[in-house]
Amino acid sequence: MVMPSFHRALDRDAILRALSSFYGITTGDGDPAGDTLICSALIGSNDFVSTKTILLQSGDSIYESKGATVFNPLTGQITVSPAFSSQVIAGTAFYVLNTAAIAITPILDAITMNQGLVYYGVVTGVPGANQFEIASLAGMGEAKFSTVVPEYQYHAFVLRDASGPGAAPQGESQAVTGYGSVTGTFTANPFSAPVAIGDEILIIHPYLARIMNLYGYPPANGNLAANWNSGVATSGNPGADLVTLGADNVKNKVNSLLVDISGLTVGATITVRLFQLVNGVEREVYSETFVRGTDPDGLWIINGTVGIHEALRVEVHSNNAADDMAIVGYDYMLEAM
Amino acid sequence: MSLLIPIRSLSDTSIDYKKGIHRGNPLGLPGIDHDLKAEHIKFGMLLE
Lengths: 337, 48
What we know:
The complex is a heterodimer.
Chain A: H1 12-19, E1 20-25, E2 36-38, E3 52-56, E4 65-72, E5 77-81, E6 93-100, H2 104-112, E7 118-122, E8 131-133, E9 155-160, E10 173-180, E11 185-188, E12 200-204, H3 206-212, E13 220-227, E14 240-245, E15 252-260, E16 269-278, E17 281-291, E18 298-308, E19 312-318, E20 324-336
Chain B: E1 2-3, E2 7-8, E3 21-22, H1 29-32
Parallel strand pairs in B: 2-3
């Protein structure tokens, strides 16, 4: 027994009506920029055009499709965005397809940016120092990225600098400390060179940024003139603070710490002390004395890796009054954990 | 990892015994004090 089939094929016209709303030929030249086309047959029509897709069937931009954004029933002009690659002149055949071109934008947004682990955007403005504006990342919620807690800070990674191949700050990453939702304005710690309009930025989830930072902070060095003899350091000991490594409640590895005492007086006894919180109370964790001219000028105080999760402060004292306001240098390497 | 401790040595001209890690003298004990030699350091010898 042959079962009757209730399926029936749509005829060709029905298929075309399902796929497209209109087929026509332009009657006038569109804008030279390629963003308009004119068809007098649409004059007086209702606006079934806006948000649909315009597919060209002839002309220099044949087979290109763009989203219709505006329809003018008085002139039969359709505006598309983005523009076709060339002017749509009179006599060009086109379809108005029943696909909502504008709906593609939020889908692309969902794929490319609003995922939480990483947000991509191109800088559209620089409203202030250490700030950059990304219009496409506006409206995500006031203060969404605004935190001063390092553990929870998103990081801004400069994927591409617009001014040239590899120019600073390309490749640099800094913690994001503020976010204005209305304009998409980010505030970040300073880069080695300011972020500029056109730079491509990745806003990276804090946990991913932490992995990225395992590569390490840039080496830090500097020097300081202080009252090494007559001063009083933070701990209350004589001398002065030289530098503080890391921060409280932030896990770091200290790979190296050197102190340069070459600027102090030959024969002076130099005391180097380290302080750090232990169970919430600051303690002296290191104290040694060196003699300028007898010991090496560069003191390798920490040689090898030690983990810290509180700030580590270095204090220096000289027993020679002539060392007040002399220069003491330092050099260290930190690595995030 | 290690923390720097100053390296010190004794001198035959000073009674200082400074804090730090002490290194030896290539001349041995007589390099520090001429009287510190083998015949003066003997098992059972009583220094009075």
